[in-house]
Amino acid sequence: MVKLEQDKELKIEYQKVVDGYESDHMIEEVPRQEISGVNFMYYMDHHPVVKLSSSSTKIRPVFDASASCYNGESLNDCLSSGPSLNHDLVEVLIRFRRWPIAVTTDLIKAFLQINVQEKDRDVHRILWPRDDGTIRHIRFTRVPSGNTSSPFLLNATIKHHLDKYPSTSVVQDLKANIYTDNWMSGADFAVEAADKFCEAHSIFADASMDLTKLVSNSLLINSQLYDKVPFINFDEPNTVLGLKWCNSQDSFFFDGINSNSSVGVVSTKRSILGLIAKIFYPLGLISPYVMYGKILFQELWMLNVVFVL
Q1: Are 261 and 249 found together in one domain?
Q2: What is the DSSP string of 47-98?
Q3: CA distance 197 to 191
Q4: Which of 85, 187, 229, 246 is deepest in the core (most CB within 10 A)?
């Protein structure tokens, strides 16, 4: 809250996001007579994350259900994360690369499309200040992303919904190539990819979920679907499951890491290991380059070097 008071513009934009949640009935104000007196209550910490490079949501609230309350326990301590229902990341990425026409899209506010039972809403509370200085008690009616069980609930909900449909090629594709809230697919021709997307869009609309931020390596997809879903700028690099994808060239690319970019950071074995760990390359495409860093780290251990000049 202190950060918001110091940055009025950020507070205004953050307020708009919260107001949007309320207008979409994703959160509700706790009635005065219910603020206290219930069996279980938990208030989540929250703060805004600003990502100016995002094409859609510049400011995103982050809710921390791992913050300990007065008894040292958090909400996530009391929740089961459930089994991981995501497919292997490498397999999803490899299947994505097989198509001449590639398409990626994701679900809008995916976690917030799943209802929370009324009896569980009071353990999903947050505090929000009014302009007059008083405090609002707000609770979620939908699943917030900060819950340790949220990924399982989302994946289980999607799989349950898809099981209602005949096992068409699109349904099978959705079951195999959805990773959390991202769908990565494609086709041999633009028309086929557009038809596949339209069928998937209709399937998710039946669950009150919307696909958005469509990205493709084909300009023809834009002309086929321009009136159905928001697009990402064709010439801007995009992120696909943590990898940067230049869709206009249909290629992945990686940013280099400069060890001198962090002012005041002393070069140690720990910092070098941290730089190596920052490089995300699940397909091993740049392993020959990352290997240089790993060899350097190994040599530093053999030389028993503490500081690197």
Answers
A1: no
A2: EEEE-TT-SS-SEEEEEETT---TTS--TGGGS------PPPHHHHHHHHTT
A3: 10
A4: 187
User: Three-state SS for 158?
Assistant: helix
Q: Which of 223, 238, 253 corresponds to the end of one domain?
A: 253
Q: Would you state the structure tokens that stand for residue 167, as one six-digit string?
A: 């096992």
Q: What single DSSP character describes residue 116?
A: P
Let me know: does 120 contact 6? Beta carbons within 8 Å: no
Is 201:193 a contact under the CB 8 Å cutoff? Answer: no
Q: What's the rounded Cα separation, in Å, for the pair 235 and 37?
A: 55
| Structural domain range at position 117 | 2-253
Q: Read off the DSSP letter of residue 110.
A: S
DSSP state of 124: S
pTM over 0.90: no
Angle, helices 190-205/150-162, rounded to nearest 10 degrees: 110
Q: Supply φ then ψ for residue 29, to 5 degrees.
A: -80, 135
CATH number at residue 51: 3.10.10.10
* Token pair listed for 194: 């557009």
